[in-house]
Design brief:
The N and C termini lie far apart (about 65 Å). A five-stranded mixed β-sheet has the order 1-2-3-4-5, sandwiched between helices. The protein has one domain: Aminopeptidase, CATH 3.40.630. The chain contains six helices and five strands; from the N terminus they run βααβββαβααα. It is an alpha+beta fold and about 160 residues long. Keywords: Acyltransferase, Transferase.
Length: about 160
């Protein structure tokens, strides 16, 4: 019987990862959100100095989940890890694949001297309970942090001149 394997993503996994990114966006009710194409994902993750890293879960050699992450820097403690996405296809949920992917990222963070791992999750997402179960803190509640974004960088620059 086949087993689920967690491994580092390879360039040839990018088509499947893009499909799972869209599945996640659909689940998050943001179907029009992803603007990333496969060539960009390949370039940014596998050419030169990668901008992100990714671990995948496979079953019968099919990618059924992924964790995409990158290094960040904290002025409070130094090198840190940011978990951008963690997703497992619905038919494989409840089989401990999500925690295996999460632990694979945490292990990489530890091995590379990271002081913490941070991520965001939508307030309504049932995954909040998954993360809390394993010890994650909701910084909006515990420390009153709010996460902001500038999406129109050109506007920001023009208004600051």
């Amino acid at each position: 019987m086949a087993e689920v394997i967690i491994r580092k993503a390879r360039r040839e996994d990018c088509v499947a990862i893009i499909a799972l990114i869209q599945e996640l966006a659909d689940f998050e009710k943001m179907s029009d959100g992803p603007k990333l194409d496969c060539k960009t994902l390949e370039r940014d993750g596998f050419d030169g100095q990668p901008l992100f890293f990714c671990n995948v879960a496979t079953f019968n050699e099919k990618v059924i989940g992924y964790a995409l992450f990158f290094y960040a820097y904290s002025t409070w403690c130094g090198k840190a890890m940011f978990l951008e996405d963690l997703y497992v296809t619905p038919e494989f949920r409840g089989k401990h694949i999500g925690i295996r992917l999460l632990k694979s990222v945490a292990k990489e963070a530890i091995e590379n001297g990271c002081c913490k791992m941070e991520f965001m999750v939508l307030k309504w997402n049932p995954a909040t309970e998954f993360y809390k179960k394993y010890g994650a803190s909701d910084l909006t509640v515990t420390e009153n942090w709010h996460y902001y974004r500038f999406s129109d960088l050109k506007r920001l620059v023009s208004e600051c001149e």
